Amino acid sequence: MVNEILCKGLAFLMLFSSLSYAVKLRDIASFEGNRGNFIVGYGLVVGLNGTGDTRSTFFTVKSLTNALQKMGIVVDPRRITIRNVAAVIVTAKVPPSAKAGMTVDVDVASVGDARSLEGGTLILTPLKGPDGKIYALAQGQVIVGGYEARGIASLRRKNVTTVGRIPNGAILERDIPSNYDMKEVHIYLNNPDFSTAKAVVDAINSKFGENTAVALDATTIRVNIPEKENYVSFLAQVENIDIEVPIVPKVVIDSRTGTIVFGGDVTIKPVAVAVGSLTVRIKETPQVSQPQPFAGGQTQVVPRTQVQVEEEGKRLVQIKGAKVSELVESLNRIGATPREIISILQAIKSAGALNAKLEVL
């Protein structure tokens, strides 16, 4: 099955692979200052159906006591039952240039020993940034993407029930600071590459004139904003420029699942490959030695070990310079499994015969 999927994927890559391909600049790079921000807070989810924290999670009791005191209710922490309450960490990602009054989604995750957050409601929780300032307030019904059904001697659970989400669950209370410079902007490539950086510079200068853009390194490109150009309008034009991106020959291997993906114009130099399989089977069949009646001996366990060695002979196959399809065809010709193909590719790369970057996940 894996071999079939692999061959189909390689055939697809062969049809659409070339030396380069055109993409929008916004798909391969990010703009300086145009980034999201993370905020986090600690809160309580209430209204659970007996699936909340137990008393062993002592900070939940303390948190609930403090929350009630702020509402003018003084209670003894020792008399509080918290099975309907769960302590949670609340996180959210704020988009760039967000303003006060906007809403964002929040994620809620249990930090105690609660079994499920299903049916719970997050009470008002302040969310802070790395600077310690409060940027948003979160509250709302928690949506859990799973369920749990429990009986006396049976448990049925689907997905994770201790993590949930509240759509539009946080309201921003202050603007997110922006770091925009109206005279110039830096563009950062997602995958640093000198050829791509040069292609970006050439494309921008071709559209807006010489010296508009200059590459500082393989990642950073500085773009000077013309005086008569509107900042937003100019960057909108820049991010929609088509860039010819070279395809980097690469072989990605996931050793855990046996998945292999080839990208780009992958070739190999002439090389010889032999795959052999050595199987060693050890079987233990201990026997009990029982003495005759009244012989005065003792019962002993006598070990019996059988060792069987099997070696599967496979011939040496020479693989000449090949493209992607020829490489796979050669490996399949010697009957290599996906696991063996991974080992073969690593060996070919070590021998210097694989003209591609080998990445193992």
Account of the protein in words:
The chain has 361 residues and is an alpha+beta fold. The protein folds into 3 domains: 21-34 and 180-246, Alpha-Beta Complex (Dipeptide-binding Protein, domain 1); 37-172, no CATH class; 251-360, no CATH class. Helices cover 22% and strands 38% of the residues. Strand 6 and strand 7 form a beta hairpin. The longest helix is centred in the N-terminal third of the chain and has 15 residues, at 2-16.
Descriptors for this entry?
361 residues, alpha+beta, Dipeptide-binding Protein, domain 1, 4-stranded antiparallel β-sheet, 7 helices, 22% helix, disordered N terminus
Instruction: Please state the average pLDDT score.
Output: 77
Report the radius of gyration as a whole number of Å.
32 Å
Structural class: alpha+beta
Largest sheet: 6 strands, antiparallel, barrel
Unreliable runs, pLDDT <50, ≥5 residues?
Answer: 1-18
Helix content: 10-25%
Q: Strand-residue fraction?
A: 35-45%
Return the domain count: 3
Distance between the termini: 21 Å
- Lateral strand order in the biggest sheet: 3-4-5-11-7-6
How many beta-strand runs? 26
| DSSP summary: helix tally | 7
Chain-wise SSE layout:
Blueprint: H1 2-16, E1 20-24, H2 25-28, E2 29-31, E3 37-46, H3 58-70, E4 85-94, E5 103-110, E6 121-128, E7 134-141, E8 143-144, E9 147-150, E10 155-158, E11 163-172, E12 184-189, H4 194-208, E13 213-215, E14 220-224, H5 231-239, E15 242-246, E16 250-254, E17 259-263, E18 267-268, E19 271-273, E20 277-284, E21 287-289, E22 300-302, E23 305-312, E24 317-319, H6 324-333, H7 338-350, E25 354-355, E26 357-360
Parallel strand pairs: 16-26
Antiparallel strand pairs: 1-15, 2-12, 3-4, 3-6, 4-5, 5-11, 6-7, 7-11, 8-11, 9-10, 12-14, 13-14, 16-17, 18-25, 19-24, 20-23, 21-22
